[in-house]
Specification:
The protein has nine helices and nine strands. The chain has one domain: Rossmann fold (3-Layer(aba) Sandwich). The protein has 208 residues and is an alpha/beta fold. This is Rhamnogalacturonan acetylesterase.
Length: 208
């Protein structure tokens, strides 16, 4: 029986239908890099750590997750939307508390939680890729340290990769290359690469 990975996240990670192509999320490509794992992608667009829990989506994971499984949690993009108070969380208060609820669910079922900082948007100014969601990234790191939880700093890793490949290539990773407006969501090419970055980090964590 394969080891199992459960994912709790947002539209940057969710699995899209063929009709949505070329838009894609990194979660749908993760199985291509982790053949020895069964991946259950619960990511869905528009959810913050708050609304993912309030809608019962963590409860659905809790029904199935068990000893030896892993729970990957990447939240933050929608937590930062102050103009949508039903989603918004204050980074150093309720955001941290909600993240800890994911950890509790995993550990109470003898599974391993792994926290992931938000992934980079295509934010390019004066020849430099800029990280967003700074307070949320910091808060994730604080929770990981406080709870002794493994962490993948995807913001740093994704910014580093974008810097390596340069703006023209980086642009093809995002839907802005298709529609001219969307600097957040990935094309299949971009989602695939983010999945490969995460898979490398996961293998390191799991085998350490």
């Amino acid at each position: 029986m394969k080891a199992r990975l459960f994912i709790a996240s947002d539209s940057t990670c969710q699995t899209y239908q063929e009709k949505d192509a070329p838009q894609a999320g990194w979660g749908q490509f993760l199985p291509e890099y982790l053949n020895e794992y069964a991946v259950f992608n619960h990511a869905i667009g528009g959810r913050s750590s708050r609304t993912f829990i309030e809608e019962g989506r963590l409860k659905e994971i809790e029904k199935n997750i068990t000893a030896g499984d892993y729970l990957l949690v990447q939240m933050g993009h929608n937590d930062a939307t102050k103009e949508k108070p039903e989603r918004y969380t204050e980074p150093y208060k309720d955001y941290k508390e909600f993240l800890k609820q994911f950890i509790v669910v995993a550990r109470s079922n003898k599974a391993t939680p792994i926290l992931i900082t938000p992934v980079a948007r295509l934010h390019y100014v004066s020849g430099e890729f800029l990280p967003d969601f700074g307070d949320y990234c910091n808060a994730v790191k604080e929770v990981a340290e406080e709870e002794g939880c493994p962490l993948i700093d995807l913001m740093t890793l994704s910014i580093h990769h974008l810097t390596e490949i340069g703006f023209d290539e980086a642009r093809t990773f995002y839907m802005v290359d298709v529609n001219g407006t969307d600097h957040t969501h990935f094309t299949e090419k971009g989602a695939n690469k983010i999945a490969s970055i995460i898979a490398t980090q996961l293998q390191s964590i799991i085998t350490s």
